[in-house]
Amino acid sequence: MANPGDCCVKVALRIRPQMAKEKIEGCHVCTLVAPGEPQVLLGKDKAFTYDFVFDVDSEQQSIYQACVYKLIEGCFEGYNATVFAYGQTGSGKTYTMGTGFDVSLGQQEQGIIPRAVHQLFQGIQSSKVRAQEAGVQPPEFKVSAQFLELYNEEILDLFDGTRDPESRCRKSSIKIHEDAGGSIYTTGVTSRLVQSEEELLQCLKLGALSRTTASTQMNAQSSRSHAIFTIHLCQMRVCQQPQMNGGGEEMNGVDSTPIAQPEFETLMANRTLMIACVSPSDRDFMKTLNTLKYANRARNIKNKVVGEPRQDQPADQRPACRDSPTSDGADGV
């Protein structure tokens, strides 16, 4: 029997539209979404059910509202949230996450990370307004970001201005640790403090450009690396020692012994949403099938959801928490 605090990884499937080239080359659509059900049929007899299924005509806003919005809301209650995209090259991962920075895209086509950043700062402003209306001191928030790239089981800091392409040949000094309560944190990572939505998005853009340049110079294929953008939210008023981190895969805590696990799996924690991106074309049938199978297995993964304590709550009403005495604080938010 699962524990009440356990939460399965939520899985969303997104099927991108066919590209013009695929239509010209005569590719046929091999996916069919069941009406009113989160189920997709691949070919004639392979059916898969997920928590959410978005067909080729789904818009960015509807996807965000359905499966990401509440995760960001939870960050203000002290819960960590992870959103990551998985799929073959060209399946729409970058578009879905919103890290392509295509100037031709309008506001309606913004991806998950820009929307999450906007919601985060809207939430901060709303908290201050509510406090003022209630006649109490407005809360103070600190927002910081980290940007990591995982390449061949090595962790690279995309905010490290001193890093050069040759540094890929040297072992990274960044370490992943787990504290006594099971919380994951890193050491040796650059953390940038930001004051606005625009500043945070600029950090994301510069880090992404750094990753692209390094990958070109070192001929690193996208399928062999992962980018993790982490946003850390700290409400200073309710937490004398910052304990409330939100919107990322990992958080800082007390020193502990490094753990020996694959880094990408280790950095995922608490509430997690996987967005499996696939092509609808029959020429990608086997790659799409592999993605669907992997996504199906991911639904069986359980996270232990534990909220960070809010200091304005009575002690007996606070959720069980993991100690996190430091405040620092990832392709996810």
From TrEMBL:
Region (Disordered): 302-333
Entry superkingdom: Eukaryota
Boundaries of every Kinesin motor domain copy: 8-333
Compositional bias (Basic and acidic residues): 305-321
Cellular-component GO terms for this entry: microtubule associated complex
A GO MF term: microtubule motor activity
Keyword RNA-binding: no
Biological processes, Gene Ontology terms: microtubule-based movement; mitotic spindle organization; spindle elongation
Pfam families: Kinesin (PF00225)
Binding site for ATP: G87, Q88, T89, G90, S91, G92, K93, T94
Compartments where found: Cytoplasm, Cytoskeleton
PROSITE patterns xrefs: KINESIN_MOTOR_2
Keywords, in A-Z order: ATP-binding, Cytoplasm, Cytoskeleton, Motor protein, Nucleotide-binding
Family, similarity comment: Belongs to the TRAFAC class myosin-kinesin ATPase superfamily. Kinesin family.
Record protein name field: Kinesin motor domain-containing protein
Organism: Takifugu bimaculatus
